[in-house]
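Good morning C.,

I know you're traveling, so I'll keep this short. The sequence:
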Amino acid sequence: MTDSSNIIDGVIKYHVEHQHIAAPRFAGYAPLEALRARLFALGLIGEKDGIGFGNLSMRTGKGRSFFISATQTGRQASLAADAYTFIDAYDFSKFTVYSKGMHKPSSEALSHAMIYEVDPAINVVIHIHCAALWGLMRANHDLATTAEYGTAEMVDDIATLYQQHDPFTHNAFVMQGHEDGIVTFGRTLEEAELKLYAIIRQYLMQHPPQPS
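The tokens, ready to paste straight into the viewer:
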């Protein structure tokens, strides 16, 4: 069964042509899920005010396809393989994602897609939330997008950013238009994860959050 929708209140803002069928086997599930478990334990993926936050994806190595954590899974400490949705294709001009799986994809699927379009060597994208880190990165005028999350403008922002900056020396940005949102990416899972920890060390070790 194919479900065509463009859900605003349910967080997904792009048009999604989703087939509720079993996704292809996800060979990268175990390492990506292990990474997600670490990020969840650190509070970088989770839930706030009833809305899940944080998502991650991995390219399949076949064409433009990738797997991404499903929408509204942030509250879950662990995800089964079927909670990762297969992105078969996407069309920026139509603001549309074509997906397969037991659940619809994350609201940030098109943003992840644009990051993969920046360079074919990029294989992993991490999107986390951290209020303290977000504020410090903004104050430092770090590389940033300004558009609201999940919008066509966000996709355009990412494309523009990496027309001006090398993605492998600037493989992180802060989402000014998406409260607490930060993205890192890399050629490997380790590169994307280590970039995130490097930013945390750079900012939060120097400016630890004060007790409220």
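Safe travels,
E.
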